Amino acid sequence: MSEVEQDGADAAQQPLISHLIELRERLLKAVAAVLLVLVCLLPFANKLYGWLALPLVRHLPQGGTMIATEVASPFFTPLKLAFFVALFIAIPVVLYQLWAFVAPGLYRHEKRLAVPILVSSVLLFYLGCAFAYFFVLPAVFTFMTHIAPAGVAVMPDISHYLSFVLGLFFAFGLCFEVPVVLVILVVLGMVSIEQLASSRRYAIVGAFAIAAVLTPPDVLSQVMLAVPMILLYEVGIIGARLLARPQPQPATGADEADKSP
Asked: 180 near 126, Cβ under 8 Å?
């Protein structure tokens, strides 16, 4: 390889190396944010678990209590919860680091569309988790504790309870992202707003099918997931009309000028 070709190869590698270095720095900042919040939460791990268990404890039969079937569960279960709460709280920082990494390569109109989608996705995920905690969990545990056969003591294991609740939070958080998904599909041209509006009946059936898979086998909790999904489907159509308007494409000679940090 000639000296000129070697210089060209080195010059081509420089941008890639700089991007990898920046990506590493962004990832380290995101991990540091999660760890910082986790360290602050560790002294309150047991209290956090007590708050998480309230929807169940309030509906246990008189004299009922939670148990730990594994030796290390009383220690590791609250610690595991503290980690997930730290990740939950630090999500905005993690997403900001991701946004700061990819934003310089986006056009102005792409940034104007990406920012509301990113913010709304975080808020909707939080809203889905809050809805599950304040409305769905009490309804589910009321149903579960009242259908226990006679002579069966309801004493849930603390680690199994945590896994169940985290799975429910994740399911509701994702299902509440329906408006964001619809907007992205319209922006990418995969579907049109008219197609979404004409597919409402299929969306309703799909919402109840998803709710039947993700929630416990009682009708109330399934309805409590399906109905918000149907309403959020309509919100997604409205959001697509507002945000997914055709954006003017930059001229060929002005492509790089339109990319601003």
From this structure: no
The per-residue pLDDT for range 173-199, each reduced to its tens digit, is 999 999 999 988 888 788 888 999 999
CB 243 within 8 A of CB 183: yes
Tokens of 87: 């990740």
Token pair belonging to 104 = 């310089």
Q: How far is CA 10 from the centre of its chain?
A: 40
Instruction: List pLDDT tens digits, range 82-132.
Output: 999 999 999 999 988 888 888 887 778 777 778 888 889 899 999 999 999
Place of tokens 């003017």: 248
Give the Cβ contact number of residue 87 at 10 Å.
14
Q: Which residue has the tokens 């939070």?
A: 169
Phi and psi for 129 in degrees, rounded to 5?
-65, -40
pLDDT for residue 255 is more than 50: no
Residues 56, 136 contacting (CB under 8 angstroms): no
Residues 6+ apart with CB under 8 A from 70: 159
- At 152 the three-state DSSP class reads coil
The stretch 5-19 carries a mean pLDDT of 61
**Composition of the chain by helix, strand, coil, percent to 5:** 80, 0, 20
Give which of 60, 211, 222 is closest to 142, Cα–Cα: 60
pTM over 0.85: no
Neighbours of 100 (CB within 10 A): 14
Compute and round to an integer the Cα radius of gyration of the chain.
24
